[in-house]
Automatic annotation (TrEMBL):
Organism: Carya illinoinensis (Pecan)
Molecular function terms, GO-annotated: ATP binding; cysteine-tRNA ligase activity; metal ion binding
GO CC annotation terms, alphabetical: cytoplasm
UniProt-recorded name of the protein: Cysteinyl-tRNA synthetase
PANTHER family hit by this protein: CYSTEINE--TRNA LIGASE 1, CYTOPLASMIC-RELATED (PTHR10890:SF26), CYSTEINYL-TRNA SYNTHETASE (PTHR10890)
InterPro entries the UniProt entry points to: Cys-tRNA-ligase, Cys-tRNA-synt_Ia_DALR, Cys-tRNA/MSH_ligase, tRNA-synt_1_cat_dom
Family the entry assigns: Belongs to the class-I aminoacyl-tRNA synthetase family.
Ranges where the Cysteinyl-tRNA synthetase class Ia DALR domain occurs: 240-291
Cofactor(s) the protein needs: Zn(2+)
Domain tRNA synthetases class I catalytic: 4-187
Keyword entries, A-Z: Aminoacyl-tRNA synthetase, ATP-binding, Ligase, Metal-binding, Nucleotide-binding, Protein biosynthesis, Zinc
Length: 398
């Protein structure tokens, strides 16, 4: 950083090198902070050696027993801000596209980083600064000091990684994101619905080689076209996706209106396929399903929500996680399904309803399909809305 000192942007006192913010004409451009505000309300314990309370250390003189390196200004270590400028310049050059960080780093850290980097190289610049909001635990910032944080490994013991990803993009990246068990339960339920819909669609389309249809033999001069409803569904999904992503990556609203309408279209079309239709109408519906499914998968792929394994595998994994959260194994559920079936046969509907209600509380939903009953994960109807303690997380999944 001798280059900065030569530019008269820094000064040396007792082995400490300070950056002079008064020498940085654009200081405050990122955060909107004004130097006069610092003079008017000087902070507590400001270093009296500083020319301006906002000046910051580029190099700190070594204290007894502290790790240090030799320098032209004596033994010491880099200041907090200088290391980021040095790494960026070394690995990315003085100009690069995106610089990220937590919203609490805008000032003073990133403001100081800009000032010192521009002093070292006037051509330096970052095209986009992206600051993410904090993840909170019941509206309180997660931190090691408070002991209220969770690691990804702990969370994914109980919830599928794709459910966690869905939860993380459910809020705008600049906004705070409040972590609660109910939020993760909802995210898990949402991804289960997505993958079950796509699996049902895949099953319905599998008989058609390559996923594409041939022309109807008796109408070779005409190609099969998708329905107007499918075209509108695709158009709305593309428009909403592009609009929201162009609005500072507003992922919070992407998997809502148009995306949910696309999933609803798929499920409605699958039900229609089960009914008797004219050949041309049936083929048009299948082509429509293919087109809408492709658009849904494109959105999921860009968001990182398209699984690398099959939908069936993910659905089974989601069910396994639900069983762990419920403190059960699948045989427990199957046994209760048998009890409920017997109760219904004996017209003991009170017991039948109680079994279903008890499982729903644990996040297990029973669904009567034809002559049988199947189960799937669901959002528990009663639950603690506070995040589980780390000890409980470990004990219930071990």
């Amino acid at each position: 950083m001798g280059m900065i000192i030569n530019n008269d942007c820094a000064y040396l006192i007792d082995g400490d090198v300070f950056f002079s913010v008064d020498k940085s004409p654009n200081y405050g451009q990122l955060s909107g902070q004004k130097l006069e505000d610092h003079r008017a309300g000087e902070r507590v314990a400001v270093d009296s050696r500083k020319r301006n309370p906002a000046d910051f250390a580029l190099w700190k003189a070594a204290k007894p027993g502290e790790l240090s390196w030799d320098s032209p200004w004596g033994p010491g270590r880099p200041g907090w801000h200088i290391e980021c400028s040095a790494m960026s310049a070394h690995y990315l050059s003085f100009q690069f596209d995106i610089h990220g960080g937590g919203i609490d780093l805008i000032f003073p850290h990133h403001e100081n980083e800009i000032a010192q980097t521009c002093a070292a190289c006037q051509e330096s610049g970052v095209s986009y600064w992206m600051h993410n909001g904090h993840v909170t635990n019941n509206n309180e910032k997660m931190s090691k000091s408070l002991g209220n944080f969770f690691t990804i490994r702990q969370i994914t013991q109980r919830y599928h990684p794709l459910a966690l990803r869905h939860f993380l993009i459910s809020a705008h990246y600049r906004s705070p994101l409040n972590y609660t068990v109910s939020q993760l339960d909802s995210a898990s339920d949402a991804v289960y619905y997505i993958y079950q819909t796509l699996q049902d669609c895949e099953d319905a389309l599998s008989p058609f080689q390559g996923g594409r249809l041939k022309e109807v033999p008796e109408q070779k001069d005409k190609t099969v076209r998708i329905t107007s409803a499918a075209r509108e569904c695709i158009s709305n999904l593309r428009s909403e996706f592009q609009t929201k992503m162009s609005d500072d990556l507003n992922t919070a609203q992407i998997l809502t209106v148009a995306f949910q309408e696309a999933l609803k279209f798929i499920n409605t079309s699958l039900n229609m396929l089960k009914k008797k239709q004219q050949k041309q109408q049936q083929l048009s519906m299948i082509e429509s399903l293919i087109a809408v499914e492709k658009e849904v998968k494109e959105v999921l792929n860009i968001l990182g929500l398209l699984p690398s394994s099959t939908y069936l595998e993910v659905l089974e994994q989601l069910k396994d996680k639900a069983l762990k959260r419920a403190g059960m194994v699948e045989n427990d559920v199957l046994h209760l399904i048998e009890e409920r079936t017997l109760a219904r046969k004996n017209k003991d509907f009170s017991k039948s309803d109680q079994i279903r209600a008890d499982l729903t509380v644990k996040g297990i939903a029973l669904m009567d399909v034809g002559d049988g009953t199947i189960w799937r994960p669901c959002v528990p109807v009663e639950q603690e809305h506070n995040a589980l303690p780390v000890e409980q997380t470990a004990s219930t999944t071990g």
